[in-house]
Amino acid sequence: MSETHTSPVVLDVWCELQCPDCHQALEDIRALRARYGDRLEIRLRHFPLEKHKHSYAAAQAAEEAAEQGKGWAYAEAVLARTADVASHGEKVLLEVARELGLDAEEIDTALIDGRHTLTVDADHAEGRAIGVTGTPTYVIGDERLDGGQSQEGLRERVEEIADRLLAQG
Fold this sequence. Notes:
By secondary structure, the chain is an alpha+beta fold. It has helices spanning 20-36, 55-67, 71-79, 82-88, 90-99, 104-113, 117-129, 154-168, and strands at 9-15, 40-46, 137-140, 143-146. Helix content is 56%, strand content 13%. The longest helix has 17 residues, at 20-36.
């Protein structure tokens, strides 16, 4: 039997980096990574919410961290400190960058010059267009799964869909 090389199934995770529910969702994301490896491409999509005043800056900083090769690591580290971000804002975003060995000055510059604004705005607009209202929201195949307050059963649902899509090849 020859090995088939199919492209990975894509899981978009609409996330807000000041959202405690998104922090809770990381456990599921790590488990999905461990189970599927490179057969599942997990993409961070930004959906900053107005109620969190630093979430837009955090999304831009995460985009710059991705340019520097550590997008998910940065997002996870910021999510682990949502309370700090709420109280200290951009200072924490730069601290996290330094802790991960990123160029914090470049992240600071990116926040000032707004080079990632279009990417964050495009994600937000696309999210709204497909009915995202809160975070986390997962999109896999053509199905949208809303996280938010209840993560219960979401990972299992994502796995069912991923398994089906991978089986279809």
